[in-house]
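OP here, attaching both records as promised.
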Amino acid sequence: MSAVRSSPTLARAAHGRGAVCTPPYWADACAHLGARDRVMARLIAQYPDGCLVSRGDPFLTLMRSVVGQQISVKAAQAVWDRLEGLLGVCTPHAVLACGPEALRAAGLSARKVEYVTDLARHFADGRLDPTAWHAMEDEAIIRELVAIRGIGRWTAEMFLIFHLMRPDVLPLDDVGLIRGISVSYFSGEPVSRSEAREVASAWAPYRSVATWYIWRSLDPLPVAY
C-alpha cells in the first residue's frame, strides 16, 4: 500500500441527508484505469453514476466499519438503521450512554458491543487525534488504529478509503474485492491474494478507485462507511 503524506482537498457534494466529501482525483483516476485495464474501462462505463464519498466524521466511519465486519452489506445496513434509531446522532458519548443491552438489542453481537464501546472511549477520552491523521502515512495510521480493540487491518483500510480518501489502498482481506476480481478477471475461478495483487498492479496509483468499481460490479448500490 502506498503512502500519502497529505490528504487531498475534498470537494463537497449533496448526498443523502447532508453534504459529503468526494475526491477531486476521481476523473483522473477513471481515465488512468480505463486506459490501462480493459475490465476497469468496462466497469467505469457501466457505472458512470456516483463515486467514493466520505461522511466527514472519523468516529462514524469507524463505527460503521466495525458494524460491517464479517456480515453482508445488506445485513450491516439493517443493523445500522436500528442503531441510528437508538442513538439518534452517532457520537462517542451517545454510544457510551446507551449501554450494552440496548446495543445488543439493536443487533450487535456481544463482541461488537465491546468493540464499539472501546472505540467510543478512545474518542471520548482523547486518546485519538483525528487531526493528525491527514499528515500521516497509510501504514502509520493503520498501526495506530489496529491498537484499538476490534479494529484489524481491514477496518483500518476501510477508514483510509472512506474517511481519508487515500487513493491507493488495496484491501486484500476484503472478501468482496477478492470475489469481484475472481468474477471479472478469472471467470469465477478461485483467486489467491498474490493473483489479486498482480491484477491490481495495473491499478496503481488508484487502487482505492478500482476497488470501489469492483465492489460496484457485485452490488449496484455504492458501498459506503
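Record two, same layout:
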Amino acid sequence: MTAYDALMAHQRELAALEQVSGRLGWDQETMMPRGAAEQRGEEMAAMSGVLHARRTDPRIGDWLDAAEPADEVARAQLREVRRAFERTCRVPAGLAAEIARVTSIAQGQWAEARANEAPADFLPVLDRVLALRREEAQCLADGGDPYDALLDAYEPGATAATLDQMFGALRPRLVALRDRALGAARQPATLQGTFDPADQLEISRDLAAAFGYDFRRGRIDRAVHPFSSGSGDDVRITTRTVAHDPFNCFYSTIHEVGHATYEQNVDPALALSPLGRGVSMGVHESQSRIYENQLGRGAAFTGWLHGRMEGAFGDLGMDADGFYGAVNRLQKGYIRTEADEVQYNLHVLLRFDLERALIGGTLAVADMEEAWNARFLRDFGYAVDTPSNGFLQDVHWAVGLFGYFPTYTLGNVYAGCLYRALTAAVPQIDRSLASGDATPATDWLRDSLQRFGGQFPPRELIERATGQAPTEAPLLDYLDAKFAEIYGL
C-alpha cells in the first residue's frame, strides 16, 4: 500500500465516523427523548474525542510527506487533508471534546429558553460556548484575526474584511428596494386560511421530488429549526409546519433539498473522502437559495404550486398571478428564515456584525439582547417584541457556529451569479418549471458545480461554473428586476 493509499483509507474511516457523529446530531433534533440531553452531551464529547484523535494522528503528517498524487483529484485530496490536519492539530483534544459536550447541552437549553421566552436561562451556557470558541479561535488564528480563523472553517479563503466590503455594497440597494416596494401603490395580497399540516407534508414531499431529492437515500422529518444532515447515500432533511403559513413548510423543504441534493449529487467516486461533500457553506447555501428563490419562487414554478395547493386545499381566493405576488410579498417580520428575498440579507448582516463583536470582545453576552434589539430597531424600523423573535430565534450560537452566518449572504451572492449563468445556458427552464419539473435547472447545477464536491476552492468553483469571478451585482440586478415587476416600480 502506498502512502497515498494508506492516507485515503484512514480518511475513509474518519469520514464514516463523522457521518455517525452527524447522525447523533440529527437524532437529537428529531427523535431523541428530551430527558436524554445530558447523556447525549457525554456521547457527543466521546465521539468528538475519537474524531479529534484520528484527525491528529501523527501518521497523517508522515503520509502527507510521502504521498505522490497521481492526478489533479489526488492533488486536491491531499490539499484538503493537509488543510484539515494542520487546522485540527492546533486545537487541543480536551478543548475539542469540551466544545462538543457544552454545545450539545447548550442546544437543549437554548430550545427550552426559546420556548419559555426566558433569555436569562440561556445566557450562562452561551457565555461558556463563546469562551470556548474564543479559545479555539486563538489556537487557530496563529496571530491573525480570531474571527477569520473561525470563518475559515465554513468558507475557506474568506475574510471578514472582504465580506464586509461586499456586504457594504449590498446594504444600500437592498434598503432602497425595500423602501420603494413597501411604499408602492401596488401591494400583493396575503394568502389567508388554515392549511392542514398533514397535507402540507404531503405537498412538501412532492416539492422535494420535483427538485430531484432521492428518497431512496434520504427522508423528511419535522424539527424546530429545519436542517439537512449527511452526505453521499444518507442525506436527511427536516422541515416544519405552521397551520396558517404553508409557505413556511414548502420553502423550508425546497431550501433543505437544495443542500441535500448537493450532497447526493457529488461524484460517487469521491464518497467518504475529503472531497466527497460540499466545498463550503457559502457554496452550499448558494444551492439551497437558488432552489428556494430563483427557481422555487419564480412565476413559472409558483404557477404549478398554485394548482397543486388548490387541488389539496380548495380555492385559495387568488389566481396564479396573485399567488406569485403572495409568495414573494415583502412584509415586516422578525424571523430570518421567514424573511423575503429583499430583507433576508439585512437579517444576516445584523448577525455578522454582532458575532464579530462577540468574538472580538467588544460585546459581552450579558449585553447581547440589548445590542440585538437596538440594531434591529435601527435596521428595520420597529422593535423586537419577544426574545424568540429576537436573539433567541437561531440555534447557531448555541451550538458554537460563530463565523457561519455570513455564509448565508455569500451563498445568496453566489446564487445570483449562478442563476445568471443558468438562464443563459438553459433558456427554456421556465417551461419545465411551469409543469413542476426543475430537472433542466438542477441537472445544470449538478453538472456545473455539485458533482465536483470539494475538488476546487469555493471562489474558483463558482468562477468555473459561471465564467466570472463572483460579485454582488447579479443578485442585486435580479432582485431589482423581479420586485420592480411585482410591485409596479
